Amino acid sequence: QLQLAESGGGLVQPGGSLRLSCAASGFKVGNYVIGWFRQAPGKEREAVSCIGTTDGRTNFADSVKARFTISRDIAQNTVYLQMNSLKPEDTALYLCNAFIYTNYWGQGTQVTVSS
Question: What number of other Cβ atoms are within 10 A of residue 61's Cβ?
Answer without folding.
Answer: 15
